[in-house]
Structure formats: structure tokens, C-alpha cells
Q: What sequence folds into this?
């Protein structure tokens, strides 16, 4: 009996030792996993820190670049206005070159009458473009009186003038080929880009405080709403001109009419 009892006690002790060893093994594994997890976390944290530092450096470079890019430049705004006036005057003069004399000499009165009749459509389009250009010039001088400028504004103004320079060409295109939809699209897109770049210029000048006179939020909304109306008129007239009748091209005269009436309405408030 004694030997049996001792054997049982030894087996129980052995089982306890095995359980203890397993528990200790689990504890060691847990410790190793914890250390591994901490190492992983530390590695991730280091990586994230490096990423943040790199992003911060890039952001700092970008901010310095934008600060330098948007810094006011030492250019007299009067020179930009002079350039604008010069381009407008040249472009308005170039419109007449859309009318050309016939290749062959006209020898009789009936031939001359036919020639005059053939240039009437292009002459009408030229008159429309001239008046539209005049309204753009008036609007530019009315609302773009600036006291300072920077590089972004300068380039916005240059792109605006580039769109103005294309008007003689697109006028000739629509005057001679108004029966083609693409000709109408080219002219309409040209006018839309002029209005759009003026919108960008005014918004940027107002935001940066470049305008000579303080512009209230009410006046800003008035300018924006007027330009939105002009863009809508441009699209509608373009579609009518092609799909209904080429004479609808004269509805582009609504651009100066609407802008003038809107301005008078604003001044009467």
C-alpha cells in the first residue's frame, strides 16, 4: 500500500510539473510575442514618424514655393493695363481683315452688287464681334482697376488676352462657315473662355486685395451673376445659330446689352 501511495504521489507530482512547465512555456511565448509586437510597433512608429517628417518637408517646400510664386512683383499695373489696351485695339482692328476683296477683278456693276451681297454676312459677324470686344474692354476697365499684382494674376491676364486675340480668327471662321456646327462651337468656346478667364481674374484680384477700390460681397455677386448670364447667353445663341437660323448670331449683341443694363441696374440701387 505504501509503495502504491508513493507511486500515485509521484505521478501527481509529475503531472503538476508538466502543467507548470506548460504554463511557464505559455508565459514565455506570451512574453516573446509581446516583445515582438512592441518591436513591430516601434518599427511602425519610426516609419510613420519618417513619413510625417518627409511629408512635412514636402509641404514646407510647397508652401515656400507658393509664397514665392504668389508674392507681389515689381511691375507697374499701368503697364499691364497699357498692354491690355494695346491688344484690344489691335484685335478690334484686325477684325476688318476678315473681309477680303475678290480674287478676280470686277468688271461690271452686277458683279459688284453680287460681291457686296456676298460680304454682308461676314460684315455682320464682324460688327457683332467688334461690339462684343468693346463690351469686354469696358468691363475690364470698369472692374479690373488694380493697385498691385503677382505672377498668377499676371498669367491669368495674359491667358485672357490670348483668348481675346483669337476672336478675329474665330469671327472669320463663323462668318464663312456658320453652316458647320464646329465653326459655331469654335466661336462660342472662344467667347466662353474670354468670360471664364475674366471671372478667374476678378475672383483672384478680389481675393488677394489687388483691386484699387474695395469691392463688397454684393458687388462681387453682381459681377459673378452677370458673367454667368453672359456664359448662358453664349451657349444658347450658339445652339440657336446652328440649329435654327444663322442670323441668330446677332443675338450675341445681348452680351453688351445685358452687361450694360445690369451695370445701370446696380448703380440705381
A:
Amino acid at each position: 500500500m505504501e509503495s502504491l501511495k508513493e507511486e500515485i504521489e509521484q505521478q501527481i507530482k509529475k503531472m503538476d510539473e508538466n502543467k507548470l512547465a506548460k504554463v511557464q512555456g505559455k508565459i514565455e511565448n506570451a512574453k516573446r510575442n509581446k516583445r515582438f509586437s512592441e518591436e513591430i510597433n516601434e518599427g511602425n512608429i519610426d516609419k510613420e514618424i519618417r513619413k510625417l517628417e518627409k511629408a512635412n518637408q514636402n509641404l514646407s517646400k510647397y508652401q515656400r514655393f507658393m509664397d514665392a510664386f504668389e508674392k507681389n512683383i515689381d511691375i507697374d499695373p499701368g503697364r499691364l493695363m497699357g498692354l491690355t489696351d494695346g491688344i484690344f485695339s489691335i484685335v478690334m482692328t484686325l477684325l476688318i481683315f476678315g473681309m477680303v476683296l475678290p480674287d478676280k477683278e470686277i468688271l461690271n456693276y452686277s458683279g459688284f452688287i453680287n460681291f457686296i451681297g456676298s460680304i454682308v454676312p461676314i460684315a455682320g459677324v464682324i460688327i457683332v464681334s467688334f461690339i462684343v470686344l468693346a463690351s469686354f474692354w469696358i468691363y475690364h476697365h470698369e472692374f479690373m482697376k488694380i493697385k498691385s499684382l503677382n505672377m498668377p494674376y499676371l498669367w491669368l491676364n495674359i491667358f485672357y488676352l490670348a483668348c481675346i486675340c483669337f476672336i478675329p480668327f474665330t469671327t472669320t471662321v463663323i462668318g464663312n462657315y456658320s453652316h458647320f456646327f464646329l465653326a459655331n462651337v469654335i466661336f462660342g468656346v472662344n467667347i466662353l473662355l474670354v468670360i471664364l478667364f475674366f471671372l478667374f481674374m476678378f475672383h483672384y484680384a478680389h481675393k488677394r486685395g489687388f483691386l484699387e477700390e474695395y469691392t463688397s460681397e454684393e458687388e462681387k455677386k453682381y459681377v459673378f451673376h452677370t458673367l454667368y448670364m453672359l456664359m448662358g447667353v453664349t451657349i444658347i445663341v450658339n445652339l440657336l445659330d446652328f440649329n435654327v437660323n444663322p442670323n441668330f448670331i446677332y443675338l450675341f449683341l445681348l452680351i453688351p446689352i445685358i452687361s450694360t443694363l445690369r451695370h445701370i441696374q446696380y448703380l440705381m440701387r
About this structure: Residues 76-267 form one domain.
